[in-house]
Amino acid sequence: MHKAKSGFTLLEIIIVAAFASLMLILFFVQKSNVDAMNRDDARKTALNAMYFALEEGYYPDHGYYPEEISEKVLTVIDPALFTDPSGIYFGESGCAYSYEATNCKDGKCKSYILRAVLEKEDDYLKRSRN
């Protein structure tokens, strides 16, 4: 009589290791996608705050839009929103945010476009309402 051996075969171990590796790869790809979507959501939130500060605070008080924006111009929003999720401050090279004032004369502008460059979607734009 032959005694049965207990344990796993090499093939079983390879299959389990391959499956575990595949699951780890899928997990990290999904985690990367979720992290990018969270950064995009943070960018949209910051841009919306800037937009509402311009439209509900700055424009009604001044009757025009500023040529440039910063935390000194838009004092009603959290200054941390001027730093994008990558840690780059508004206006610095590589920042995901931009403000393009148009129809300006003597620092007073009639319109603007706020833009956030997103990772998983097209650029997020907000245009002046007036």
Can you describe what's shown?
It contains 1 helix and 4 strands. It has 130 residues and is α+β, with helices and mostly antiparallel strands. It has a domain at 39-127. Strands 1, 2, 3 and 4 form a 4-stranded antiparallel β-sheet that branches.
Percent range of helical residues: 40-55%
Poorly predicted spans: none
Tally of helical runs? 1
Described by strand count, sense and barrel closure, the largest sheet is:
4 strands, antiparallel
SSE topology:
Blueprint lengths: L9 H53 L2 E2 L30 E9 L2 E9 L7 E4 L3
Antiparallel strand pairs: 1-3, 2-3, 3-4
Feature tags:
single chain, 130 residues, alpha+beta, 4-stranded antiparallel beta sheet, 4 strands
Brief synopsis:
With 130 residues, the chain is α+β, with helices and mostly antiparallel strands. Helix content is 41%, strand content 18%.
